[in-house]
């Protein structure tokens, strides 16, 4: 039995909804609620609309929201010339629900849609978009979209009817396109605090600076100086204004977040040690900030040290194209000491000034849009995600979808660990109540109901799995292509364990950058927490290396187990150091590339002929009396004969002697040399000895601080 809701707002004063159902015999039954209103229009088996003078016959009711196709469909019986009516949509009969909607599992729509395969295409979706918009952006036919919506239990009659952003995402996932959720800019924008990331070269004091700043944070003040690392903290000025600091220093985390579309950082603090100056990762940080179009405030650190030379740092930064304030530019520079806590107030002032100039504002009304900066599992409280609200207000109790996970916010805690009812823009907040552990950079989306949350989460998981399989497929094709070029590629299985989800992501991404045609970095398992016995078992099963980043040293039972099983555990706190060690191991493990190398060069001084005295002793042999002038000659090498620079013969060495003694290798000096099947020596010729060597790849650390393995 099918129900139709027909809107005829122009027919009567006020909005009139005419509902009727069609039974199997085709008889229409109008709902009793509308019967009174209908009596004005229904005459026996005919229906007339009066207000706009249009006559509706045989239940042909004009839909005033409809586009040309719907109009053509409705006018079909009026023989409209030139408008082609589309085929009637196939309706999917829906069984009445027997369960509460929240319990109903999300069943993927059965509709098979074929649109041009473009897995990297990103379609922008927004609340209130029409089917027409979605069709135009995704390339899928409207009928196909309608059919998916019908499978999802939603009926959209007209291509110009609007749908919610969540529905648009569900439909987009079904047709296999990637989406970017565009959030409304509507609503009153209010000033908001700046979100700051600390970057710079290793050991220049990023962690120390964050530690010192954290001690001045609101959380530390409220908790008597005791703070816990939850991924972000807030520093408040006397004026009441505040700054939010992301508590994960380094570039990998910044890039990983950005790569996932989470552009939360407003300002970058570039830490440069006054005693060390500009280093590769300083330049890398500058490039990251420039690419992301994020302004920089320079903090020249370690100014307490005797060897500190802030002026030199200024000149170096200036020559790298950073327009410093004291050189007429607009990049502020502050001299600090993170260790002695000197100049921190000046740094905070500079950040406020920068934020002021940027006039940062965000909408505070309406549903929140937020990004996860860190996630961890707490034994008692389950998965916890620290998120920063970008716009709107996140309210406790709301249903949310975070990446591919979902949940209902059981509690929101601020950085001081205090339970709060809501979170406003730029406010870091710890969310409790998720069903699974999200990743740093995941978006937080507020949805209307548990059913919608479940559907979106399952749809996203399905899409992720599809993308993962596609990636494996692509990697295999790529590997097959590489295998054609290089004979051998060894695998380097790695297990990554880190303190928080954000670090897991950053370390995994960084390790993957060491992939090369000779060694395939295969991350077999990742996890949050210290190295466990389970990791050792897994490593033993697949001969994997274990990487522990920012985790505590494993107990001796585990290290002993690892040593016995010949498993290497690499513990690091700095990604760059980890990459250096891993790079060395990769180079060792790489089979190398076979290369021909000239190992020595000799000059022909005399030619001797050894006559074959009988047939059984073989033919006459020519011996070249040579002097090795460079490198060495080996008996196993290939000899190349050159005359006036041209190659005249190439063949294996048949004999190599010095003072009538056979030799395997000879360095500089005189020798007698026979080349197989060669009797064309001339005095003055050059002979080169060619040897096959295996060239190992190189671990390259570029000026910008990026690393790679070069084969
Ligand atoms: P990161 O790798 O950039 O996070 O650097 P860290 O914060 O771990 O600091 C590296 C080393 O520099 C540590 O031994 C710190 O104690 C030291 N350090 C950091 N800031 C200062 C400072 O302002 N003055 C001095 N003298 N040492 C510092």
Overall mean pLDDT? 78
The small molecules bound here are: guanosine-5'-diphosphate
Biggest sheet strand line-up:
12-13-11-14-15-16
The radius of gyration over CA amounts to: 36 Å
Count of DSSP strands: 41
Structural class computed from helices and strand pairing: alpha+beta
Low-confidence stretches: 1-114
Proportion of strand residues: 25-35%
Give a quick account of the main beta sheet: strands, pairing sense, barrel closure: 6 strands, mixed
GO molecular function: GTP binding; GTPase activity; translation initiation factor activity
InterPro entries: EF-G-like_DII, IF2_II, P-loop_NTPase, Small_GTP-bd, T_Tr_GTP-bd_dom, TF_IF2_bacterial-like, TIF_IF2, TIF_IF2_dom3
Keywords: GTP-binding, Initiation factor, Mitochondrion, Nucleotide-binding, Protein biosynthesis, Transit peptide
Subcellular location: Mitochondrion
Task: Please provide a written account of the structure.
The protein has 711 residues and is an alpha+beta fold. Helix 5 (165-175) runs parallel beside helix 12.
Topology, please?
Elements: E1 2-7, E2 17-22, E3 28-30, H1 32-38, E4 42-43, E5 46-47, H2 68-74, E6 122-126, E7 129-130, H3 131-138, H4 142-151, E8 162-163, H5 165-175, E9 178-182, E10 189-191, E11 194-200, H6 206-215, H7 218-222, E12 232-236, E13 242-246, H8 251-259, E14 267-273, H9 280-291, E15 296-301, H10 310-319, E16 333-335, H11 344-358, E17 361-363, E18 369-378, E19 382-391, E20 394-395, E21 399-402, E22 405-413, E23 419-420, E24 422-423, E25 428-434, E26 443-447, H12 450-485, E27 490-498, H13 501-512, E28 519-528, H14 533-542, E29 545-549, H15 556-564, E30 569-572, H16 575-589, E31 593-610, E32 621-631, E33 633-634, E34 638-643, E35 646-658, E36 661-662, E37 665-666, E38 669-675, E39 686-695, E40 698-701, E41 707-710
The protein binds guanosine-5'-diphosphate.
Guanosine-5'-diphosphate binds at residues 200, 202-208, 249, 301-302, 304-305, 337-339, 574.
């Amino acid at each position: 039995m099918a129900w139709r809701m027909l809107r005829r707002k122009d027919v009567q004063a006020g909005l009139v909804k005419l509902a009727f159902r069609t039974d199997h015999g085709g008889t229409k039954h109008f709902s009793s609620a509308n019967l009174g209103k209908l009596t004005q229009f229904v005459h026996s088996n005919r229906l007339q609309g009066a207000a706009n003078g249009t006559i509706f016959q045989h239940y042909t009711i004009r839909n005033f929201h409809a586009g040309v196709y719907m109009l053509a469909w409705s006018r079909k019986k009026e023989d409209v010339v030139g408008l082609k009516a589309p085929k009637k949509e196939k309706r999917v009969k829906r069984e009445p629900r027997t369960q509460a909607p929240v319990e109903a599992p999300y069943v993927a729509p059965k509709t098979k849609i074929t649109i041009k395969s473009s897995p990297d295409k990103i379609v922008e979706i927004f609340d209130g978009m029409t089917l027409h918009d979605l069709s135009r952006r995704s390339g899928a036919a409207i009928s196909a979209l309608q059919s998916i919506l019908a499978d999802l239990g939603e009926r959209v009659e007209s291509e110009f009817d609007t749908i919610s952003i969540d529905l648009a995402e569900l439909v987009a996932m079904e047709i296999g396109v990637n989406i970017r959720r565009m959030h409304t800019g509507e609503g009153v924008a209010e000033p908001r605090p700046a979100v700051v990331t600390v970057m710079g070269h290793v050991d220049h004091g990023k962690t120390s600076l964050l530690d010192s700043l954290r001690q001045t944070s609101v959380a530390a003040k409220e908790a008597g100086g005791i703070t816990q690392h939850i991924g972000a903290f807030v520093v408040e000025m006397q004026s009441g204004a505040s700054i939010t600091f992301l508590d994960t220093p380094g570039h990998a985390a910044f890039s990983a977040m950005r790569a996932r579309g989470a552009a939360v950082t407003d300002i970058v603090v570039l830490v440069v040690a006054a005693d060390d100056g500009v280093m590769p990762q300083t330049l890398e940080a500058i490039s990251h900030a420039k690419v992301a179009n994020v302004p920089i405030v320079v903090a020249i650190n370690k100014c307490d040290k005797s060897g500190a030379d802030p002026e030199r740092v200024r000149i170096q930064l200036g020559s790298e194209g950073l327009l410093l304030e004291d050189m007429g530019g607009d990049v502020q520079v502050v001299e600090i000491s993170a260790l002695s806590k000197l100049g921190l107030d000046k740094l905070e002032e500079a950040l406020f000034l920068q934020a002021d100039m940027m006039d940062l504002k965000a909408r505070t009304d309406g549903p929140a849009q937020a990004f996860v900066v860190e996630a961890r599992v707490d034994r008692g409280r389950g998965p916890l995600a620290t998120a920063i609200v970008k716009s709107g207000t996140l309210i406790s109790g709301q249903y949310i979808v975070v990446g591919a996970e979902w949940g209902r916010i059981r509690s929101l805690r601020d950085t001081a660990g205090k339970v709060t009812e809501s979170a406003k823009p730029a406010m870091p907040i710890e969310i409790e109540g998720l069903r699974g552990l999200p990743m740093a950079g995941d978006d937080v989306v507020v949805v209307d109901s548990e059913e919608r949350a479940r559907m979106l989460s399952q749809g996203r998981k399905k899409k992720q799995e599809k993308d993962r399989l596609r990636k494996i497929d692509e990697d295999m094709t790529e590997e097959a292509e590489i295998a054609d070029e290089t004979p051998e590629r060894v695998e380097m299985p790695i297990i990554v364990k880190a303190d928080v989800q954000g670090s897991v992501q950053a370390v995994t991404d960084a390790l993957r950058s060491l992939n090369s045609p000779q060694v395939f970095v295969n991350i077999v398992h990742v996890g949050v927490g210290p190295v466990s016995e389970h990791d050792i078992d897994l490593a033993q099963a697949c001969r994997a290396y274990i990487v522990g980043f920012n985790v505590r040293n494993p107990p001796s039972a585990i290290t002993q187990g690892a040593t016995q099983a010949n498993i290497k555990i690499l513990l690091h706190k700095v990604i760059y150091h980890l990459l250096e060690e891993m790079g060395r191991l990769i180079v060792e493990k790489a089979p190398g590339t076979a290369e021909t190398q000239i190992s020595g060069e000799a000059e022909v001084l005399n030619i001797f002929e050894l006559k074959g005295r009988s047939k059984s002793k073989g033919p006459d042999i020519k011996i070249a009396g040579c002097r090795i002038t460079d490198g060495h000659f080996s008996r196993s090498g290939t000899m190349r004969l050159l005359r006036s620079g041209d190659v005249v013969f190439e063949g294996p060495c048949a004999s190599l002697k010095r003072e009538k003694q056979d030799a395997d290798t000879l360095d500089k000096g005189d020798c007698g040399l026979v080349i197989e099947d060669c009797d064309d020596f001339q005095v003055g010729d050059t002979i080169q000895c060619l040897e096959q060597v295996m060239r190992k790849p190189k671990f390259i650390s570029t000026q910008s601080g990026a690393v790679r393995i070069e084969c």
